[in-house]
Amino acid sequence: MQSTEYVYDDAGRVTRAVHSPAWTPEDRALVMSLQRYEDDLCLCGHPRSRAWHSEMDGQYEHDETEDRFLCHACTAANGGDKVTYPAAARDIGPADLPPFLLGVTTTPS
């Protein structure tokens, strides 16, 4: 996406416009890839295409360094009542899973 920034003189008149360069095909590909990655994230932060895959049962292990973490930002937003989250899980599953298909390679709850 191209943007324009205006330069003003002391009287507040536009003296020139500076245009940003247009996005390159690589820029667009990178933004689209980031969007696909973010769209695939579960609330736990792991990609749904792995975390929800039926073949990933038993392929996560608990990070035993800490049991829970205090989030200072969420605590402040919650009026000072402490908000904690469980420690992250570590993905120890295979790199080459079959394709993920919602409702096909998912495990019913």
How would you portray this structure in words?
It contains three helices and six strands; from the N terminus they run E-E-H-H-E-E-H-E-E. The protein has a two-stranded antiparallel ribbon. Strands 3-6 form a two-stranded antiparallel sheet. Strands 4-5 form a two-stranded antiparallel ribbon. It has 109 residues and is of the alpha+beta class. The model has no long low-confidence stretch (mean pLDDT 87). It has helices at residues 25-39, 48-51, 72-77; strands at 4-8, 14-19, 60-62, 68-70, 84-86, 89-91.
Brief rundown of the structure:
The chain has about 110 residues and is of the alpha+beta class. The protein contains three helices and six strands; from the N terminus they run ββααββαββ.
Task: Break the fold down into its secondary structure elements and pairings.
Blueprint: E1 4-8, E2 14-19, H1 25-39, H2 48-51, E3 60-62, E4 68-70, H3 72-77, E5 84-86, E6 89-91
Antiparallel strand pairs: 1-2, 3-6, 4-5
Multimerization status:
single chain
Which outline best applies? flat
Strand content: 15-25%
Instruction: Please outline the major beta sheet.
Output: 2 strands, antiparallel
What are its keywords?
two-stranded antiparallel ribbon; 23% helix; single chain; 109 residues; 6 strands; alpha+beta
